[in-house]
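REVIEWER CHECKLIST
Item 1: Sequence provided? yes
Item 2: Single chain? yes
Item 3: Sequence as submitted:
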Amino acid sequence: MLPAADELAEVLLDLAVPHEDIGELVRMSRRVTDDPELRQALEASVAELVRGVGEIGTGLDLPELDWASGPLQRCFPVYVFVAALPYTRAYHRERGVPDEVSRRTLADLGRHMAVHRRRYGVAGVHAVWWFGHHFRGELYQLGRLQFERARLGRRTGTALAAAGLDVGPGTPCLNLHIPDFLGPLTPAACDRSLALAAEFFARCFPEEKYRVATCHSWLLDRQLTHYLPAGSNIVRFQQRFRLAREDKEPADTDPVEFVFGDPGLPVETLPRRSALERAVGDHLRAGGHWYHGHGWFEL
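Item 4: Structure as written out by the authors:
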């Protein structure tokens, strides 16, 4: 189920796996293919991953790897995703997904490995569960933003119906995500992504009519406008959305994780090198909290 060792490095490069991790991944792959227990775990994981390819919101629950903690345990999901590639790419071809969109979408694996190394200093995959969206054909990288085929939840769907839209819980929507390591979130980059998405989904998923885009993120916390300039990229991103609701429970670790790279950093040590760093850290140091906003706009 895995490519031969001399081909595996090329596949890992296509997935944007950090160069410093490729050699070790190639060496460890022999253990995965030669050990019956690991091979069985790989097969079970791939079966779970590709179950319901193309469906929306099925969730991912990979079997636990009963193996001593170490590089192989941390990196085992990489082999699962590599082994699942033929299924994902077949679905992409069936839907007419352009090769460059497929490649950039699945290269998010390497980005999450870079996030893992930034936080822990070793190879591994950050947020393994997240890749069910990519490898099941739910999520696509289109320019600066990622677009997830989704359905309105109960609370958001009810709020949008109350706002006068002909939608409700269960209505198809596009959920926007903002990847790290891709430069500033400029209005021009967002406009380009939305234009690409309009063309992409009309061509590849013509039977799914998307009336609204949604975003569920701490970046939509309106408190940011008290700290950031009116013309900042984040404030202008917020201005695209109407808020369906705001969470009541604090989500303080989310901005710390995404801005500083580690959700466990002590608040008093957070740097103040940029306007966003100062906003996140100063607000927390003053006893404030950050919250998720749930926003939407019509497409």
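Item 5: Key structural point noted by reviewer: The chain is about 50% helix and 10% strand.
Item 6: Recommendation: ____
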